[in-house]
Write a structure and sequence with these properties.
Structural class: mainly alpha
Strand content: under 5%
Number of helices: 6
Number of strands: 0
Shape: extended
Oligomer: single chain
Largest sheet: none
Order of helices and strands: HHHHHH
Distance between the termini: 23 Å
Radius of gyration: 22 Å
Low-confidence stretches: none
Length: about 170
């Protein structure tokens, strides 16, 4: 869907740039989806506190970096004191109206929201399933995540190199 949207000269340039940047983000997201779960699974399998410590230390570093930004680096001008901002609900409704006014953008946004909801749902169920049904300990859950990460990373190149790669099958 990205290539036709970028090539369609009837679309505004900002929309075409959005789709081009979304394609680049999808590539980065594919790399992230393959590598980060593997690292996280290895951390969980090693010691349960390590992922929390890594996450907390990353948060501390991020907070320190944000707090040390000079105020002069801000490019956002403060609104004049006399101007009254519209209410949040008014702004949200205006954004929803604009979104629904663009059919392609509305479909993509709804599809992305549904995919994110489904991704969060299976991920939360996997924790319960691995513990109660499979009876895996914490290290087993980490190995389960690692196996999924390895399969997601190694699967496409293996599938691409197979003799049946030219056929489109979903099995």
């Amino acid at each position: 869907m990205t290539a036709p949207a970028v090539a369609d000269r009837g679309l505004p340039p900002s929309f075409r740039r959005f789709w081009a940047s979304a394609a680049a983000a999808n590539v980065a997201d594919g790399i992230r989806a393959g590598v980060l779960p593997l690292i996280g699974a290895l951390l969980v399998a090693t010691a349960m506190f390590v992922p929390l410590a890594v996450d907390a230390s990353a948060l501390v570093v991020a907070v320190i970096l944000v707090l040390t930004l000079p105020t002069a680096a801000s490019t956002v001008a403060a609104p004049p004191a006399r101007e009254e901002r519209p209410r949040l609900l008014t702004e949200l409704l205006g954004g929803a109206r604009r979104l629904l006014g663009h059919p392609r953008l509305a479909v993509v946004t709804c599809a992305a929201s549904a995919i994110a909801f489904a991704d969060a749902a299976w991920c939360s169920v996997l924790v319960v399933y691995s513990g109660s049904v499979l009876g895996l300990p914490e290290a087993g859950f980490g190995l389960l995540l690692a196996a999924g990460a390895v399969g997601g990373t190694a699967g496409p190149p293996v599938r691409h190199g197979s003799p049946d790669a030219s056929r489109r099958t979903w099995s």
